Amino acid sequence: MTQVKVLFVCLGNICRSPLAEGIFRFKVRERGLSGQFKIDSCGTSDFHIGETPDSRSMANAKKNGVDYMHRGRQLKKSDFYDFDYILPMDELNMKDVERLMPEDATAEVMKMRDFDSAEVGSDVPDPYYGGENGFQLVFDILERSTESLLDELLEKHKLN
After folding, report:
1. Domains identified in the chain, total number
2. What is the pLDDT of residue 1?
């Protein structure tokens, strides 16, 4: 069976990208498709390698019915061959990913909010320095975006 491999990327891999991974994994599991996807997240920086996600982000996700766990890691060259899709959270991370991307990379790179019906192509804001409202806003954005992404991937790859 073919697996669709999806990698979510932000700066430190403790707020946005592990949350996107958790929400996407939840949606995939909810539809009974876990075996058909490989899902992970990483950061463009080495700030939080080995750390668990931000406790505020995890608490907010749990409040919204999504429980997840992850250990921070940094984007590596092999990710461009090991994943089909790489989804940076904002323009800064998009530029970093494109800068690091080998010429013969096989992954398709698309901004996370290319899948957000509310604000196509916008950045997923970094909630790290803000309060609870910022984490809820990011959850809402990622919930919409991952739902759209999943629908598109199911159609594109003829999965059910």
Report:
1. 1
2. 62
